[in-house]
Amino acid sequence: MKTISEKVAYIEGLTDGLKIDGGTNEGKIILALIDVLKDVAAELEDVDETLDDMAEIVSDIEESVYEIEDEIFGSGELPDYDFEDNLYEITCRNCDNTVSVDAGMLEEGFVKCPNCGSKIEFDIDIIDSDECDSGHDR
Ligand SMILES: [Zn+2]
Asked: Is residue 113 domain-shared with residue 61, that is, in the same domain?
């Protein structure tokens, strides 16, 4: 595909080949138009270059963001306390049975041990962090 500059250069070549006379009214206009076209083509090339530079800068920034993201959240792996669908392993203090609890059960604040039936209350960090302020009923 020809660039705009190449097409303009072709037209400019035609004016030479066809002996467009810059002394006539029509010739003046045609040559002036070609001048404008050359300017437009040059500007477009500048804009193209600027866009390429910008694209490079944006992808650099994108890369940095990914790196920062990795540093904050770890590479790809979700943290243990992701509330969406993770199960937590809680050990019953009474019988040492390991009980899996999900986020919904965590919000309850305790779970009943299926092995010995005693109430296991949670005292892990997740609970205290934001959801519950212990001791206060809503
Ligand atoms: Zn138990």
From this structure: no
